[in-house]
Every structure is written in C-alpha cells, then in structure tokens.
Specification:
This protein is of the alpha+beta class. The protein folds into three domains: 46 residues, Uridine Diphospho-n-acetylenolpyruvylglucosamine Reductase, domain 2, CATH 3.30.43; 111 residues, Uridine Diphospho-n-acetylenolpyruvylglucosamine Reductase, domain 3, CATH 3.30.465; 110 residues, Enolase-like, domain 1 (2-Layer Sandwich), CATH 3.30.390. Strands 4-5-10-6-7 form a five-stranded antiparallel beta sheet. β2, α2 and β3 form a beta-alpha-beta unit. α10 packs antiparallel against α11 and α11 runs antiparallel to α12. The radius of gyration is 19 Å and the shape is globular. The N and C termini lie far apart (57 Å). The structure holds flavin-adenine dinucleotide (FAD).
C-alpha cells in the first residue's frame, strides 16, 4: 500500500474539489471501521485518501420539510440517542444500537455503512423500511437516489467514483405508524447479522392495516423490500392467521432468493421467527394485538 497524499477538507465543496483530481485512485475515509481493515488486508490500494472527519456539515440530524436529514458522517451513537430519531423512527435507533460494540458505534458512520453496502449491514433494512433516500454530491451537482436503487450487490453500490454520499433523507412516517428492527446473530453483542429485518406498520382507525413496509438483510447479496408480504398485509383486518401467513410467505421469499445456498433452510426458519418477533413487538407498542 502506497498512499501518496491524504486530504482533510473542511467543507463538502473542498472534498469534491479534492476528489475531482483523481476519482479512480482516491478513497473516501469516514469512520474507517471498514476501510482501514480493507487497506490493511491489501484489498484496496488507493493513492489518495480524503478524510471526511473534519466536515462539520456532514454530522448531525435535522428536521426539514417533512423529513429527517441525517449527515452521512453521523455515528451510530448519535443516531441511537438522538431525540428526533427516537420520536419519529425508533427502528433506526434500534438498528444503530445493534451495531458492533460501543467503540464501533462511536466511530462508524451511517454513510460508511451504506457506501460499504455489506450484505449484513444493519442500517440498511431499517432505511429501506423507512423509504430513505441518499443525496450523492459531485462536481456535476447533486442527485437523490432511493436506498433500494443504491444497492447493486454485496459491497457494490451505484455511487460513482467522483461522488460523495452527503445526506440521508427520510420522510417522517404518518401518524399511527409503528416500526421495529430485529437482528438475529450468533450472539447478542458484536455479532454480524445472520438476518436483520426492518418493519413499519400503519394502523387505520377501523382496525385494518394501512401501509406496511418490510425489508430484510443478510438473506441475499443486498438487503431488499419484501413487497409480496407488504401486499398480503395491507388493507387486512388483524388476525393471528394473517400474521402466520405473512411469516410463511416471507420464509418462502427468502428461501427462493437463497436457492441452493447451504444457509437457505436455516434462513427460511429464522426469517419466520424474526417476523413473528417484529410483529409481536409492534403489537405490544400499539396495544392492538
Ligand atoms: C469489530 C467490528 C464490528 C462491526 N459490527 C458491525 C455490525 O454489527 N453491523 C454493521 O452493519 N456493521 C458492522 N461493522 C462494519 C462497520 O463498522 C460499518 O459498516 C460502518 O458503518 C462503516 O462506516 P465507517 O464510517 O467506519 O466507514 P469507512 O470504513 O470509513 O468506509 C467504508 C466504505 O465506504 C466508503 N465511504 C464512507 N463514507 C462515504 C461517503 N460519505 N461517501 C462515499 N463513500 C463513502 C469508504 O470509501 C469505504 O469504501 C463492524 C466493523 C467492525 C470492525
């Protein structure tokens, strides 16, 4: 590994200027919890590093025009404890609290988790269930991309080499929307997810289910929305049979996605269990089942 230069821009504009000089041989450094390991293992050999750690505008969470805007350099610890996140989208706080260890949560960023796009990344199912978008900034301007369209495979995204992921924009969920996040791993702390799941359920006055969003990770190259289950649930009266059918359908979708992979049978079983756990958590929170 031979790094020729290391930049510490103080603004996004400066970072873009630095990146424009040689985008294909430059790597962005956020918290470094993925990147430094990849550099040490020789999986990457960039000539230039741009450290986003000094750009204050990329840190923090703000409410704006019916959305929450999260700077890409915001750490899990900040997300986990932020009053706006806890009020409007506690499932993202839960996802953040499930990541690694306190040291990783103090250093690792939500932007880094998205850009690294690991199969088991914990923020991603939560962000998919919340219908989040990301803002990508380059010398050509800004573009907004839905998180689902950003992911194109394990550790692969649509972020161009001259773009920086600057913000995550999440619409505020409508009233009477409940959400949760479930992570199943080999142990309770410092575990890579065997499966992670984000679920939101909107409840109508008449007792029927309104809009449902369900996303799963670590059960395919990239996390994904499970629209088949969402459609099964939406507009239905709540019954235990309905939730059992939804869990079975999720298990089938996961099994089909994994095909002949050795983990398929195991993940089929745990996806049903994770859904059951998620729907029970939401039931306790809303007091309707
Ligand atoms: C011990 C340990 C435990 C972990 N546990 C978990 C876990 O439980 N769950 C989980 O999901 N992850 C876990 N991780 C992985 C890691 O901590 C997260 O993926 C973290 O969010 C990465 O963010 P970062 O700020 O450290 O990114 P970095 O390592 O700095 O960057 C990661 C990648 O994203 C790119 N990048 C970063 N920011 C941007 C940006 N703004 N724009 C464009 N590209 C960018 C970098 O160039 C690099 O390719 C763990 C890692 C370790 C070492």
């Amino acid at each position: 590994m031979r790094i020729l230069d290391y930049f510490q821009p103080a603004t996004v504009e400066e970072a873009i200027e630095d990146l424009c000089k040689s985008p294909h041989t430059t790597k962005i450094l956020a918290g470094g919890t993925d990147l430094i390991i990849q550099l040490r293992e020789g999986k990457l050999a960039p000539e230039y590093i741009i450290d986003l750690g000094y750009i204050a505008e990329l840190r923090g969470i703000a409410e704006k025009d019916g959305t929450l805007v999260i700077g890409s350099m915001t750490t899990y610890t900040v997300i986990e404890n932020d009053p706006l996140i806890r009020k409007y989208m506690p499932l993202l706080a839960l996802a953040a609290s499930s990541v690694g260890s306190p040291q990783i949560r103090n250093t690792g960023t939500i932007g880094g988790n998205l850009a690294n796009a690991a199969t088991a990344a914990d923020s991603i199912p939560a962000l998919l269930a919340l219908e989040a978008k990301v803002v990508l900034t380059s010398g050509r301007g800004e573009r907004e991309v839905a998180v689902g369209d950003l992911l194109i495979g394990s550790n692969k995204t649509n972020i161009a080499s001259d773009e920086i992921l600057t913000y995550i924009v999440i619409p505020l969920p409508p009233s009477f929307t409940y959400g949760t996040f479930v992570k199943l791993g080999r142990r309770k702390a410092l575990a890579i997810a065997r499966l992670n799941l984000g679920l939101t359920v909107n409840l109508k006055d008449n007792g029927e289910l309104g809009k449902v969003t369900l996303a799963v990770g670590a059960v395919g190259a990239s996390a994904y929305r499970v629209v088949q289950v969402e459609k099964l649930l939406e507009g239905q009266k709540v019954t235990s049979e309905l939730f059992t059918a939804a869990g079975k359908l999720l298990a089938q979708v996961v099994a089909d996605k994994l095909g002949s992979r050795p983990t398929a049978a195991y993940k089929k079983t745990i996806s049903k269990a994770a859904f059951k756990r998620a729907i029970a958590k939401i039931g306790t929170e809303c007091g309707r089942w």
